[in-house]
Every structure is written in structure tokens, then in C-alpha cells.
Amino acid sequence: MSALDAVQAALAAEHAAVYGYGVVGARVGEERRAEATAAYAAHRARRDALARTVRDLGGRPAAAAAGYALPFPVPDAAAAVRLAAELEDRVAGVYADLVRASEGPLRREAAGALREAAVRAVRWRGSGVAFPGLAERASEQLS
User: Fold this and answer.
1) Structural domain total, the chain
2) Distance (Å, rounded) from C-alpha 124 to C-alpha 82?
3) Residue 142 domain flag
4) How far apart are CA 118 and CA 62, in angstroms?
């Protein structure tokens, strides 16, 4: 995967996360609404930075879709919390791909975004995974 392809994939994931956090914010309880708002703002900022990066790499930033299919129904606050953790896991995955596909400042930025998504996922879920962003290793045990 080229760096441009990986940045476009990260941009697409950020578009989806921004959409998803709109749902999270509408359903999450009052006690976690500030956390949802902060995550929404962080994903918007990352989305905007990625769009600039795509242009810097000579590409045309992918536009957001009008809507996104959610991985499961979100009828209440508990489901909203699960959705937030899922959004962060998905974003972490594309940033892991971007880390692998890039170098220099772009790689450092992707690693920082991966770390931020992993931390947010832990906060939402209440637990972490051994290899955030690497689904193929998440179920492996550490030796």
C-alpha cells in the first residue's frame, strides 16, 4: 500500500468516525457527553489534517459519504459507548496501516494518531488490547 493510499484510507476512517460520533453524542449519557464531544473534535481535526496531507501528496481527498452503516443498532447509552470503542478500534487499524506505509514526519503523526485512538478505545471500553490497531494480533497471547 502506498503512503497516499494509506492516508486516503485514514481519511475515510476519520469521515466515518466523525459521523459515528454524531450518533454517539446523541445517545451517550450526560456523564460521558463531554468525552464524546472531545473525541468528535479530535476526529474532525485529524480528518482536516489528513485532507491537507492527501493534497500535499498530490491526491484529491476523498469526500465523506452522506451516511454510514453502523456496525450494530445504537438505541441507548450502553450501545453508544460500545460504538465509540468500535470507532476507535477501526481508526487505530487504519493508522497502523499508515505507520507501515509511511516514513518520517507522516509516520510519526500516524503513530501519534494510533496511540490517541487506542487510549480513547480503552477509556470507552474500560480495557485495552495487546496490539492496538493490529486486529490479526489482538487475540494472540504475549509470551
Assistant:
1) 1
2) 7
3) no
4) 24
